[in-house]
Write the structure tokens for this entry.
Amino acid sequence: MKAALVVSGMCLTGCAALIPTPTGPGRGAAWPAPVSAHPALQGLHDVRGAMELHSRHSHDGTMPIATIARLAGAAGLDFVVITDHNTLAGHAEERREGRPLVLVGSELSTTGGHLLALFMDRPVTNDQPVEQIVEAIHAQGGLAIVSDPTSRKTPWTRWDLPVDGLAIFDLNDALLTDGIPWLLLKAALLPNATFWHTVRRRPAVALAVWDAQLQRGRHLTGTAGHDTHAHAGVAPVLIDSFQSGFRLMATHVLVPALTPAALADGLRRGRVYVGFDGAGDPRPFLFTIHHQAGWAVMGDRVPWAPGLSAVIQIPRRATIRLYHDGRPLRSTVGTTVEWPIERPGVYRIEVSLNNRPWMLSNPIYVDAHEE
């Protein structure tokens, strides 16, 4: 075992470290995913995927894109987003139909930090000012998502730029929080389920950064980043097991159809939540605000008026917390709750099981009434 730990440590190159697969949805998971019968979700499907994945086209990746796609299918994912470092070399290997979809973007190393450039057909080089990089991504109709907003080495510093979102949970960061030696010791000694409970932590720093930007009036979509590069190590300790990460968590997007265009639109609009599926399938998940004209879902804006109410539904009993402008406002334990919305602001939901996160919603924006 000692030799295994030593070799595993040598193999670790700053990427996520994983051991055997946690529980969670796998092959055979139904699509379209079960959705609530609630009218707010009529015509929408809850699809789950993994973002910020690195293949052999990255300098620190070894996995072929076809293998990543196979592992994603075995884990029951509906889509994966490959973002190799500063290149679109894998673009020809996209799979834009079927399940899982395989979409290829790039992770750009910029002077402002790391940025995912998504839904593009032409590469954007990183040898230019970060302002021009964001502009070039948007010129193609693409999305610019901050991949490592609270990185210890290269945190994102250019919040003045019109980026479209950020990773509010980074698996790599969660795994390495306590340092490599402690990580490897836990992976070697703890039962699999117990080990994964230690990884599933509330990303307090990233959420605080997100909330601060939302308070500035920004519309920023929160996603999850796997940041997985390769399989390495010696059994039973495996480093960068794609399939383990795929089963642990996912970026869930509400879409009318499983297509690249629908995913891009859902991500842009913020119809997204982060689910820790290894703790239990979070679907059907509902967070909506009822108003005079109907229902607002995640990412929507609605003018404040008397009589607004937030309606939350989850598939099993857990702790539900409603956040207002970055601060916890109300909480309960249950499966369904309706709370009044008494003032304007940014509202989002956190759901936890056994004091660990299960779902992190994107916000609904309640705007002040304009005279």
